[in-house]
Design a protein that fits this description.
globular; 6-stranded mixed beta sheet; alpha/beta; two-stranded antiparallel ribbon
Length: 229
């Protein structure tokens, strides 16, 4: 509900708004609350605000790199930037609340974070018990680190947090790392891909778009389907 100028206006059910991921992405609910109130305060038509929140986020290109939702081989793929522990926690909380058959994760970090911050990112990931984690190297974002240094710190942090070694895979190339997880997709999986390089994200879009189109054209396909919670 949007309460503005003494009147309440319905914006629809939370679970029906695409940006909320069926209500799983609670942080998106708070963002929508702020955005709709700001829009009303600026004088935007309330009907236009309601129409926008009812559709925005249904197309992965609405907000590139932020909670993009794709279907691929029966799995739900979430592409997000998630470049710090809080962002990763919110993303993984949403992913885990969808009760996936398997939760898999791409994990990496820029080199200008200190060792403690990199360890915190790894510990955050471990709390959500991914079934598989592929650690990537951000070769354009070494920022003073030696090649392989950041992935090694992430792996150490995961092991410290109790992740068993056979759930961890290291792949230096970001795109290859993401594709490893996509190629292993199974129906019911949720695949979380924090992709930090624009060019990599754009190339992955082509693959994911083809997968979504294939599923939506199949007899039982539904590109907007959200896993049962």
């Amino acid at each position: 509900m949007l309460n503005h100028a003494g009147e309440e206006h319905s914006l629809g059910k939370v679970t029906d708004l695409p940006l909320t991921l069926g209500g799983a992405a609670r942080y998106s609910i708070f963002n929508l609350l702020a955005a709709t109130l700001a829009g009303a305060a600026l004088g935007l038509p309330l009907a236009a605000i309601a129409r926008t929140v009812a559709r925005f986020g249904s197309d992965p290109t609405d907000n590139p790199g932020r909670l993009e939702r794709w279907r691929y081989r029966g799995a739900l793929v979430l592409v997000d930037y998630a470049h710090n522990p809080d962002g990763l926690e919110q993303l993984l909380r949403a992913a885990r609340s969808l009760q996936p058959a398997r939760l898999t994760l791409l994990l990496g970090q820029a080199g200008n974070r200190d060792d403690g911050a990199i360890a915190e990112l790894a510990h955050t990931a471990a709390r959500f018990a991914p079934d598989r984690i592929v650690i990537k190297e951000l070769t354009r974002m070494l920022r003073g680190r030696e090649p392989g240094e950041v992935p090694a710190l992430i792996r150490r942090g995961l092991l410290e947090a109790g992740v068993v070694p056979d759930r961890i895979h290291l792949e230096p190339d970001e795109e290859t790392a993401a594709r490893i997880l996509l190629e292993a997709a199974q129906p019911g999986d949720v695949i979380v891909l924090p992709v930090h390089t624009r060019e990599v994200r754009e190339r992955l879009h082509a693959t994911l778009d083809a997968g979504t189109r294939e599923e939506s054209s199949s007899p039982n396909g539904d590109s907007n389907h959200i896993l049962e919670r």
